[in-house]
Amino acid sequence: MKSYLIHFIRHGAIDETLAGKYIGVTDVALSEKGKAELRRLDYECRYPGAAAVFTSPLKRCVETCKILYPEQTPLVIEQLSECNFGEWEGKTAEELKGDPNFEKWLAGDNDAKPPRGESNADFIRRICLMFESIVDGLIKTGTTESVIVTHGGVIMTLLAVYGLPQAKPFEWTMDNGCGYSLRVTPMLWQRDKVCEVSGLVPEPKEDD
Fold this sequence. Notes:
Layout: E1 4-10, H1 32-44, E2 45-46, E3 52-55, H2 59-68, E4 75-76, H3 93-96, H4 100-106, H5 120-141, E5 145-150, H6 152-162, E6 163-164, E7 179-184, H7 186-192, E8 195-201, E9 203-204
Parallel strand pairs: 1-5, 3-4, 3-5, 6-8
Antiparallel strand pairs: 1-7, 2-9, 7-8
Helix pairs in contact: 1-2, 5-6
């Protein structure tokens, strides 16, 4: 039976001065270091080929696509954006320490949300609806291999919801420019809405 490969890739690194800050919908570009690291990975490792490339609209993802897939025009999908951290954007966990709403949100309370931001429940609903739409579209069109360039939070959450083996979001962490490959079997997908996490992206190049 035909199966479908979907490769998740986390965008390259953003400016190191933003390290430790909550950067969701803030539209920052890749750092020069981040661009160089992506080019290094692309040279030393093997990124998957794909008939279709999907991306978050944020600069750091679009720029990652241009470096890794320069010959392809990615399909920009608004719903692949990172969580909207509202008034917490640009702040560190240390700065938000003691805020009871932040503590609830951090603990995974689905109803807790940043002021003017997005709750955990709203974030999960948004990205899950989009992912299911993408998978159904790939199956309908017979597109057997695709790439999704998006954010760490998006990837970890989707793998926790749909991935086999089952694991918590924090168990699906990845470095910038890296990610996971999923194998979607139509029968299993239609019955249980799950898919197998089948490998890591990028793969090491085989020695000549």
